[in-house]
Design goal:
- The complex is a heterodimer.
- Chain A is of the alpha/beta class.
- Chain A has six domains: about 1-60, no CATH class; about 70-165, Glutaredoxin (3-Layer(aba) Sandwich); about 170-385, NADH-ubiquinone oxidoreductase 51kDa subunit (Rossmann fold), CATH 3.40.50.11540; about 395-470, Ubiquitin-like (UB roll) (Roll); about 475-560, NADH-ubiquinone oxidoreductase 51kDa subunit, iron-sulphur binding domain (de novo design (two linked rop proteins), Up-down Bundle); about 570-598, no CATH class.
- Chain A is built from 25 helices and 16 strands.
- Chain A has a six-stranded mixed sheet. A four-stranded mixed sheet of chain A has the order 2-1-3-4, with helices on one face.
- Chain A is globular, with a radius of gyration of 25 Å.
- Chain B is of the alpha+beta class.
- Chain B has five helices and nine strands.
- Chain B has a five-stranded mixed sheet with strand order 2-1-5-3-4, with helices on one face.
- Chain B starts with a strand and ends with a helix.
- The chains are: A alpha/beta, B alpha+beta.
- The interface of A and B includes residues 51, 484, 499 and 500 of A.
Chain lengths: ~600, ~230
């Protein structure tokens, strides 16, 4: 049987290890195009896991399918920046061209088209994924090309290479993007200092985590080094899912060696032998080049046993793919996912530095943090701390997109003002800036003097620009949809609150909102902030909180009345009855009916 | 380490490793909960046990007590937030208490009374959740699931069967049983399993025993859950 054979082959490739469950599901789907019930049963049997658990994992990730999908699975990136660049119309055009309804499989089983969360190509959007591979810079011509290729059943491998060309768009370089770090040089420099000396340099650099939370890197490494347990682990969080963020994609494309060098440095510092990189499924196109970099590093003795000739310095790195789950960017959810489970955030404490991957002390660092670590090893902590501000040392990569002339990756010293960044990227007539992505801060015009830094406007890297033609309500609405879609569903406030919030925003958008809805929205925001289990839920209402405060007219002009609360359109409610009775005469419409009777 | 903390102004002693909720119970104080169970490690999903410690909201089932903590569990703010969480759970599923055989013995319903929940406040989501009556002794009515995962944990960790698991994500999350057919009858589930006897709401129901206890004699008829819950253990 085809399914059983495929499963056996894939499971064998992963030596039947249950922590590889997500990887196994991804690879089985690669071969079968979806995960039929029999495949889940076979996988469960081969791994000796309950079938229900395998089903549970498969059901958690957006890019895994337990129902048949088209031979070509096309997913349009649905970030606000994609929408602003015309993604909805392009998706409609492709649907029309291929005779398929959004969210359904075409009758011949050839193609299915839907949306997906931000794919990290905001600087070259609108973007889509076809069978997991990214295509950017969509326009009418590209949509025509894609429609033709699908209709002609051209195998993906034979599609024109330039469709899949992804640009780095590095626009402004600082020390991180400008310094040559020959493979092994940072490691050699740190080894020369010894662990204590090297940690002192790292401490002096003042480096704080670039994933958003800003925890001091040296403190994290110190804590993990001191944690009891021999089998420590280094994890690189490359699950760059925050809408509007793409700087890690560029680092992994251009500076992968440096990121791996950072991981190896961490391993040497804390005493780890196992390294894992968690790469978001949407960056799958990077998987092969990253494996090639790892192979090169093994070949020259920078990975493996006795790195740089140092006895006992044994370390290697494996890459795990995600499959469409923003919540896995939360470090404990990421660890669960690495263990082959549903990406549900854990109760903290204990923190990963004492109990992380498989209960072992684990350092989890962002891609950019690890790249910065390598730079610090080479140039010293003081040199690094010379840039930035007192509590935010060094430089920060910003992923700039939206209404500006030059979207791309910019490196700035911390402390740069929003206005300076706007001037550099060619933004004009700017109405609002979203810093830090959907979970970040919405800034209005009078705040453009504020500075990027942990002490003022913290950012995990996203910087989305909106000019005066944009509506702040639409921005917040898009982000609310995003969180409702990405909530893992573990805790009550986030699972239900994000959906209720979306309901209120939909109601306002359709013109049936009332003042009382704004009060309910504010109450929901508070509960989400206070009671959620992890940062996803507590930051889910951020954009609504900010825009309600700073752009309130965008909400109020959508209210049908500031007093009355119509929950629905009474006449519209009769539409179905009209359709069923085949009536469309004046007596079947509320307004005309009223006229008749008077 | 042991010591004492203040719960709504009253001193509560605790032993090393005890959580706020455990220590409070041991001292005869009730903190509301749905997913917490004395025989299992804290789960932390329902969030009904939220309290305020030093101005921050925390799950009292998961946070270890510390000396000198000032814990707010019954302010109007916390009670209001708990009521909203209950309202959310009521609109999320399909809860028709008058016709539910768990009525009077249901923790969700009892919590709603405890928190004086007079309306559901939000728009109902009315999800489509088919029931599973395939098993000879047990009916599964998923309409009432609140995702406490007690059945999942009991079946996996105590019964050793893993009959239940959660699948999908977010608002689409739901229970599945351990069979390709998706039918409980095709699993090794038994009416004597702990998992068959642990559901706090009306999802896992024993057949041929519904409505046997007359109104007035049901678990939460005479006393509120805040009393019954503490008496259960003592």
């Amino acid at each position: 049987m085809e399914v059983a054979k495929t499963v056996r082959k894939v499971v064998a490739r992963h030596a039947g290890v249950t922590t590889r469950l997500l990887q196994i599901l991804i690879e089985v789907q690669d071969e079968l195009s979806w995960l039929p019930p029999a495949a889940l049963s076979c996988i469960a049997q081969a791994l000796k896991l309950p079938r229900a658990r395998v089903d549970g994992v498969a059901g958690f990730y957006s890019l895994l399918y337990r129902r048949p999908v088209g031979c070509y699975r096309i997913l349009f990136s649905d970030n606000i920046t994609d929408r602003m660049l015309g993604a909805p119309a392009l998706m409609q055009a492709l649907c029309t061209a291929l005779w398929v309804e959004r969210g359904k499989v075409s009758e011949d089983g050839l193609v299915s088209i839907d949306t997906t969360s931000c794919t990290g190509l905001c600087d070259q959007g609108p973007a889509l994924l076809v069978n997991g591979l990214a295509i950017g810079r969509l326009d009418a011509a590209r949509i025509d090309t894609i429609a033709g290729l699908v209709r002609g059943r051209t195998p993906l491998a034979d599609w024109p290479r330039e469709l899949f060309q992804i640009d780095d768009n590095i626009r402004r370089r600082g020390p991180l993007l400008d310094t040559e770090v020959p493979p092994g040089a940072a490691l050699a420099a740190a080894l020369k200092l010894g662990r204590e000396g090297w940690l002192a340099e790292l401490r002096a650099s003042g480096l704080r985590g670039r994933g958003g939370a800003g925890f001091a890197t040296a403190r994290k490494w110190d804590a993990c080094r001191a944690a009891p347990g021999a089998e420590k682990v280094v994890v690189c969080n490359a699950d760059e899912g925050e809408p509007g963020t793409f700087k890690d994609r560029v680092l992994l494309t251009r500076f992968a060696d440096r990121v791996f060098e950072g991981m190896t440095l961490a391993a040497w510092t804390i005493g780890a032998r196992l390294g894992l990189m968690y790469l978001r499924g949407e960056y799958r196109h990077l998987l092969r080049p990253l494996h090639e970099v790892l192979a090169r590093r093994r070949a020259v003795g920078l990975l493996g046993a006795g790195i740089l000739g140092e006895a006992g310095f044994d370390f290697d790195i494996d890459i795990h793919l995600g499959a469409g789950a923003y919540v896995c960017g939360e470090e404990t959810a990421l660890l669960e996912s690495l263990e082959g489970k549903r990406g549900t955030p854990r109760i903290r404490p204990p923190f990963p530095v004492t109990q992380g991957y498989l209960g072992r002390p684990t350092v989890v660092n962002n891609v950019e943090t690890l790249a910065a670590v390598a730079l610090i090893a080479l140039r010293g902590g003081a040199d690094y701390a010379a840039r930035g501000t007192a509590s935010s040392s060094g430089t920060k990569l910003l992923s700039i997109s939206g209404d500006c002339a030059f979207p791309g990756v910019y490196e700035y010293p911390f402390g740069v003002t929003v206005a300076e960044v706007l001037a550099d990227c060619g933004a004009r007539d700017t109405h609002a800036v979203q810093v830090g992505g959907a979970s970040g801060v919405t800034l209005a015009g009078d705040e453009f003097g504020r500075r990027i830094g942990f002490e003022d406007v913290p950012s995990a890297g996203a910087f989305m620009v909106f000019n005066r033609s944009r509506d702040a309500f639409d921005i917040a609405h898009n982000f609310v949809d995003f969180f409702a879609h990405e909530s893992c569903g573990f805790c009550t406030p986030c699972r239900i609150g994000t959906v209720l919030l979306k309901g209120y925003m939909d109601k306002l958008a359709s013109g049936y909102g009332a003042k009382v809805d704004l009060a309910d929205i504010e109450w929901l925001e508070r509960l989400l902030k206070n009671a959620s289990h992890c940062g996803l839920g507590s930051s889910a209402p951020n954009a609504v909180v900010d825009t309600l405060l700073k752009f309130r007219p965008a909400y109020e002009r959508r209210l049908q009345s500031l007093e009355f609360e119509p929950a629905f359109d009474l006449d519209q409610a009769l539409a179905r009855a009209r359709q069923m009775t085949g009536r469309d005469d004046p007596g079947a419409h509320l307004e005309t009916l009223r006229e008749d009777t008077t | 380490m042991s010591g004492q903390f203040l719960l709504d102004g009253q001193a509560v002693p605790f032993d090393d490793g005890q959580t706020i909720l455990e220590a409070a119970r041991a001292a005869g104080h009730y903190i509301p909960h749905l997913c917490w169970h004395p025989d299992f490690p804290p789960h932390g999903s329902c969030k009904l046990c939220i309290v305020k410690v030093g101005g921050r909201h925390v799950s009292s089932c998961a946070l270890q007590a510390a000396d000198g903590m000032e814990v707010d569990s019954s302010s109007a703010e916390i009670r209001g937030e708990r009521r909203t969480l209950l309202q959310m759970l009521f609109v999320e599923g399909n809860h028709f208490c008058p016709s539910c055989e768990k009525s009077g013995n249901c923790e969700l319903q009892a919590q709603a009374y405890e928190h004086e929940m007079m309306s559901a406040r939000f728009a109902y989501l009315f999800p489509l959740r088919p029931v599973d009556a395939s098993h000879p002794d047990i009916l599964l009515d998923f309409n009432r699931c609140i995702f406490c995962e007690l059945c999942v944990r009991a079946s996996r960790d105590v019964d050793g069967k893993s009959v239940f698991a959660l699948t999908n994500r977010g608002i689409h999350k739901h229970l599945v049983v351990n069979a390709e057919s998706g039918r409980l009858a095709d699993t090794d589930f038994s009416v004597d399993d702990l998992a068959a006897n642990i559901c706090p709401v009306g999802v896992i129901l024993k057949k041929r025993s519904g409505f046997k206890v007359p109104i007035g004699e049901r678990k939460y008829d005479a006393q509120p859950i805040s009393r019954v819950s503490l008496e259960d253990e003592s």
